[in-house]
Amino acid sequence: MASDKIKIFLGWAIIIAVLLVGGSIWSLARTYSRSIQPSAFRSFAVTGEGKVVARPDVAMFSFSIINEGGTDIATLNHDNTERGNKINSFLKDQGVADKDIKTEQYNLAPRYQNTYCAPVLYRSLGKNTVCPPPSIVGYTVTQSVAVKVRDFAKIGAILSGVVEKGANNVSQLNFTIDDPVAVENEARAKAIAQAREKAKLVAKAGGFSVGRLLGIDEGEQSYNEKYYNARVMSLDSTAMDAPLPAPTIEPGSQDVIVTVTLRYEID
After folding, report:
1. How many CB atoms lie within 10 A of CB 223?
2. What is the pLDDT of residues 213-245, one digit of tens each?
3. Domain 42-56+179-235+245-267 falls in which CATH fold?
4. Sequence ranges of the domains in the chain
5. Whole-angstrom distance, CA of residue 146 vs CA of residue 102
6. Confidence band (pLDDT; 50, 70, 90) for 133?
7. Using an 8 Å Cβ cutoff, are 38 and 214 in contact?
């Protein structure tokens, strides 16, 4: 009798153990499945957009020194270098730091002249049958420099000043945010907050509860410029009969926009 009771007890114990182990395995499998396959469950997505209006803190422009002359390369190079040094000193006197002055191009290119060749019919008669190759008649030295200006009160004076000191061309004036990370983070936080509120409204309208966050995707940041007023974009120092007046420059503002998409599980 005692042995029969023991056998019955062991039988029930084994059954209970099997049930417990089976339940644990099922729970673990379900949890694992939910973690690796969130898309297999009912879910919904909402999109939020965050916008921050930021004022640019850096003005950027490029200037070029173009020397075109004969075959005396040394003279051309000396003149180009001398004018470049004058502009560089002027920029530093205006408070522009060394790190904000960058030489982007220094190019020496020959200029060719083609020799006139007689028409084919004339050459077929035995005259001027050989057409000489183009000859070098001079060289052009071009130096291009990119500049960042952080004191907006000096932008106009700097633009006109570099031309007065010898630059032939000033172009590509634009304004930007030097370190956009802080502004992007602010816009991102606004986008996420908007998406969360939208998720609550969608869930309320649909008659369900917002579950756990399954994923978050971020779109590309965009910078929508509100254009500045710049009367000078291309200047020629050779055309000046009098000191160049400082142009009127307004940096305007930029709309920094971040979009995010949040995907939630439906409870």
Report:
1. 15
2. 999 999 877 776 654 434 344 444 444 455 556
3. Translation Initiation Factor IF3 (3.30.110)
4. 1-36, 42-56+179-235+245-267, 58-176
5. 5
6. confident
7. yes
Alpha-carbon distance of 11 to 18, in angstroms, equals 11
Widest Cα–Cα separation across the chain: 135
Beta strands in 12-57 (DSSP E): 43-54
CA distance linking residue 172 with residue 249, whole number of Å? 13
d(Cα 115, Cα 135) in Å, to the nearest integer?
Answer: 8
Strand stretches in 115-221, DSSP E: 135-149, 169-176, 210-218
What's the CATH number of domain 58-176, 3.40.50.920, 3.30.420.270, 3.30.70.2970, 3.30.1330.60? 3.30.70.2970
Q: What global pTM score does this model have?
A: 0.63
3-state SS assignment for residue 108: strand
What amino acid occupies position 232? V
CB contact set of 76 (below 8 Å; sequence gap of 6+) = 67, 69, 139, 140, 141
Report which secondary-structure segment, H or E, holds 28. Answer: helix 2-36
Q: Does the pLDDT of residue 191 top 80, yes or no? A: yes
C-alpha distances (whole Å) from 207 to each of 18, 202, 204 are 39, 9, 5
> Measured between alpha carbons, how far is 119 from 25 in angstroms, rounded to an integer?
94
pLDDT in tens, 51-102: 999 889 899 999 999 999 888 999 999 999 999 999 999 999 999 999 999 9
SS3 state of residue 50: strand
